[in-house]
TrEMBL record:
The keyword Transmembrane applies. Keywords: Membrane, Mitochondrion, Mitochondrion outer membrane, Protein transport, Receptor, Translocation, Transmembrane, Transmembrane helix, Transport. The chain crosses the membrane at residues 85-105. CDD domains: TOM22. This is Mitochondrial import receptor subunit tom22. It comes from Candidozyma pseudohaemuli. Residues 1-38 are annotated as: Disordered. Residues 23-38 have a biased composition (Acidic residues). Belongs to the Tom22 family. Its main location: mitochondrion. One of its GO terms (biological process) is intracellular protein transport. GO terms for cellular component: mitochondrial outer membrane.
Length: 143
């Protein structure tokens, strides 16, 4: 149940002065230094960035937000496009380049094999003719 009491004007004025006095004591230098020391030690970077919200006017905040969103959009589309381009270049290189290098390597092996066969054929011709390769060189040098 509610109990009503009558308050005199003098009592109300004294209470207001007491509350005003208490408030003035609370906002003194001692409480500010305690507040600064406690909050600075426990303050994070996020807390500091949130506090900047009060410093920057709402119009500027909206403008900065617009530019940041635009930058995020460009960065996202750039990363997506570069990823797609890299995928296309890599897959094209594997599909076209890999078979090309295999064919080139096999062609080089075939040429080496033909050189080896030609050298064997030349040495067999010299042996079959009965000529001494060293003597044949000597006669060439004498001429």
């Amino acid at each position: 149940m509610v109990k009503l009491t009558q308050v005199d004007d003098e009592t109300a004025a004294a209470t207001e002065q007491k509350h005003t006095f208490d408030y003035a004591e609370d906002s003194g230098s001692e409480s500010e230094s305690d507040f600064d020391e406690d909050d600075i030690e426990n303050e994070t970077l996020y807390d500091r960035l949130v506090a900047l919200k009060d410093i920057v006017p709402p119009e500027k905040r909206a403008q900065y937000n617009y530019y940041v969103n635009k930058l995020k959009s460009y960065a996202s589309s750039g990363i997506s496009t570069s990823g797609s381009l890299l995928w296309a270049i890599t897959s094209t290189g594997l599909l076209l380049g890999f078979p090309f290098f295999i064919a080139l390597f096999s062609e080089m092996q075939l040429q080496e094999l033909e050189k080896g066969v030609a050298m064997q054929q030349g040495s067999q011709d010299l042996i079959a003719s009965g000529a001494d390769p060293l003597a044949a060189e000597g006669t060439k040098e004498q001429k």
